[in-house]
Amino acid sequence: MTVCRGVRGAITVQQDTRDEVLSATRQLLALMIRRNGIDAADVASAIFTVTRDIESEFPALAARQLGWLEVPLLCGYEVSVEGSLPRCIRVLIHWNTDLPQADINHVYVRDAVRLRPDLNVLPPVDFEELERWISEHLCEDQSTAKAVPASQDPASPGSDVKGASGA
Ligand SMILES: O=C(O)C(=O)C[C@]1(C(=O)O)C=C[C@@H](O)C=C1
């Protein structure tokens, strides 16, 4: 029976740069997709959180770069608990699958392994091969896409761009 199950993942970045956030999130998603055999068509939605020290880019863009154009995505901040792991990107994927909960593979990489050592069963990763896989799955339109600044978003109240109505 197909049910919706959660697949968790987390990864850290060394610096809060757009490139690092996107590249780390692509790697995290690629590992989760490959470990579980996730097809975008079966993904109900995905929620990303970042720690407060990350503000250079929305990690959701990495999912669109990998072709998740129809998957509802949302980003938010993680709770800032004192002493918690810095520069961390977390994701929760809601996946429609026949698999039992126990067969879901959650993915924690880099310094995020310490968040859930009990779930840290990731086999060794060939990162060169992983990057080749990511390049093969990049969705060209989205790979260079940027978040739209409010001043250029026709839907934004303060926009200096005219909407379709010309208003
Ligand atoms: O799994 C993680 O990413 C954690 O940091 C662990 C944990 C938890 O205590 O279960 C804590 C905070 C997150 O919002 C989610 C889960």
TrEMBL record:
Q: What InterPro entries does the database record attribute to this sequence?
A: Chorismate_mutase_AroH, RutC-like_sf
Q: Which reaction does it catalyse?
A: chorismate = prephenate
- Give the GO biological process terms: amino acid biosynthetic process; aromatic amino acid family biosynthetic process; chorismate metabolic process
Gene3D superfamilies, sorted: RutC-like
Which E.C. number(s) belong to this protein?
5.4.99.5
**CDD domains from the UniProt entry:** AroH
Outline the segment boundaries, as ranges, of region: Disordered: 144-167
Q: PANTHER family, from UniProt?
A: CHORISMATE MUTASE, CHORISMATE MUTASE AROH
**Protein's UniProt name:** chorismate mutase
